[in-house]
Write a structure and sequence with these properties.
524 residues, 21 helices, 56% helix
């Protein structure tokens, strides 16, 4: 058992310490650590048999008397004694309060840049801060990178190997911090590629995902994924679900059969998922269970009527002419600092509204896929692995031609063949572009910042509906024209295009007028 602490105060300041603690507690302070320190101070004075006044030297000696304490704890001990001295100066005549001890700071970092990239690092940090970024941690990383280069006396170009060596140079850092160091240097390389000749931006480092299968069904999952891909399916999202399922089983140390209860528990294991997302996970496991039953005969058949996915399309928002105008004008004002960002978003929105491309098709466009002479886009390996040619209107072609020299001036030697380049010099990802469009739509009042609203994909819906409305007004046979629209938009099933016939009240009204005219003609 621990020996109980002696709480009796015996020093020359015993009564004052008691009154100080009582006063502080009446003021509402818990004062737990402070009491411990003051009792220690009293014991320190008693052991010394100290009978003098409370001086700064005395307080400092007490604060540093235990060599095992950290500097922060020593500073805290001095701070408590200094607060007590303020109280003592009021109650004991001719007792001045102790001066406050300034907080000890870390050794000041040498902010002088010495490496071969010193001026460029300075300009890059200044540019980012002018753009409104705090850029505090990133600046620290870049100063460390400069010091790393200086110590090596490095005089060569910024290479991928150099960036990797720097990011992993400190073995005490976590993988996440090492990845962040590489990311900052990669961003700096993008800036450097625009200012230093023959300097290519470094490739973005993708987050490594552990794809090792460890569960009881590991071999069967690997074979099932391989089979599906040999059959021509991309099977990307489904494979991710199966990898998660394998990890779920491995964490549980599950060694039984694939049962109905197990599949349901896995499909609903995340409370953040919607009902449709849970249903999609369940259907993937159900398909896998059918495959598994061929090899493990006792595998029960999973019910198809459990966790049914809601059928039907998400409600489409058909943008009006006024909304399209607001989006196009707003895209030119997204950034006051980076004009290329405005031009890029304006070009993407205009291209999508005039061609009905999917968002994945926009981000996958390469420079070689855009013929600026003929105005024909080559869409490669789109949905269902289909390729197609998409001609664009002359006004759209002119906008694309205007975008190219601005992009090339900013990124003369890009690391990606993408036609549309993000501000970091890489290819857009669908989530980034979707979020940029969502922010644009909120800024111009087309949608609310909270909840559901018009999406990027609704530009595709709008294009299809506008084309059908134009054909109706031109007096064309819309049903006969649907295959042309389906081919242009990359639809595989006729029903996907026919859906747009009932998408808006305007289309239904035009169809009703045409049917009414047909009936009158038949009656005559």
């Amino acid at each position: 058992m621990r020996k109980p602490k002696d709480r009796k105060l015996r020093s020359i300041f015993a009564d004052h310490i008691t009154n100080f603690i009582e006063m502080k507690r009446r003021m509402g302070y818990q004062l737990k650590n402070h009491v411990v320190i003051l009792f220690g101070f009293d014991r320190y004075l008693n052991e010394m048999n100290y009978r003098g006044t409370l001086t700064q030297e005395l307080a400092l000696n007490f604060a540093t008397s235990n060599t095992r304490l950290s500097k922060n704890w020593s500073a805290r001990k001095y701070q408590v004694v200094q607060q007590f001295s303020v109280y003592l100066s009021v109650t004991v005549p001719d007792t001045p309060p102790l001066p406050m001890r300034k907080k000890t700071t870390k050794r000041s970092m040498d902010r002088t840049l010495h490496s071969i990239f010193a001026d460029h690092i300075t300009n890059f940090i200044e540019m980012k801060r002018r753009m409104g970024f705090q850029f505090k941690n990133q600046a620290v990383i870049l100063f460390g990178f400069d010091r790393y280069l200086k110590e090596m006396d490095y005089q060569g170009p910024l290479t991928h190997e150099l960036a990797l060596n720097f990011s992993t140079s400190n073995p005490r850092l976590t993988k996440r911090w090492s990845a962040q160091k590489y990311q900052v240097v990669q961003q700096f390389s993008v800036y450097l590629s625009g200012t230093v000749p023959d300097t290519l931006p470094l490739p973005a480092r993708k987050k490594a995902m552990d794809k090792t299968l460890r569960s009881i069904f590991a071999d069967h999952i690997a074979n099932f994924i391989e089979l599906k891909r040999r059959m021509g399916y991309q099977f990307k999202n489904q494979a991710a679900v199966l990898l998660h399922f394998d990890y779920y089983l491995y964490e549980m140390n599950y060694q039984g059969l694939l049962t109905q209860e197990l599949a349901l528990n896995f499909a609903t294991s995340s409370i953040r998922m919607s009902k449709n997302e849970c249903a999609r996970k369940y259907q993937v496991i159900r398909q896998f269970s059918d495959y598994l039953a061929v090899f493990i005969q006792d595998t029960p058949s999973l019910r198809p009527d459990v966790l049914m996915q809601t059928k039907g399309h998400a409600p489409a928002h058909i943008y009006s002419d006024e909304e399209i105008t607001r989006l196009m004008n707003g895209a030119r004002r997204v950034s006051r600092i980076n004009p290329l960002r405005n031009v890029t978003l304006h070009t993407i929105v205009g291209l999508t509204a005039s061609t009905g491309l999917r968002i994945s098709e926009v981000v996958k466009l390469n420079r070689a896929d855009v013929d600026l002479e003929t105005g024909i886009l080559t869409i490669r390996r789109s949905k269902f692995q289909k390729d197609r040619l998409v001609p664009v209107h002359q006004t759209t072609l002119n906008v694309l031609r205007d975008y190219v020299p601005l992009r090339d001036a900013r990124f003369p030697r890009p690391a990606t063949p993408a036609f549309f380049i993000s501000m970091w010099g890489g290819r857009f990802c669908t989530n980034t572009l979707s979020q940029a469009f969502r922010n644009l739509a909120c800024s111009v009042g087309v949608r609310n910042a909270i909840g559901l609203g018009p999406r990027f994909h609704d530009l595709r819906h709008t294009f299809a509906v506008r084309r059908l409305v134009a054909w109706y007004r031109e007096g064309k046979e819309v049903q006969a024209m649907l295959p042309f629209l389906a081919t242009y938009m990359g639809h595989v099933h006729y029903r996907d295009t026919a859906y747009y016939l009932t998408a808006t009240a305007e289309l239904l009204g035009l169809a009703a007028e045409k049917y009414d005219a047909f009936l009158k003609k038949e009656i005559k």
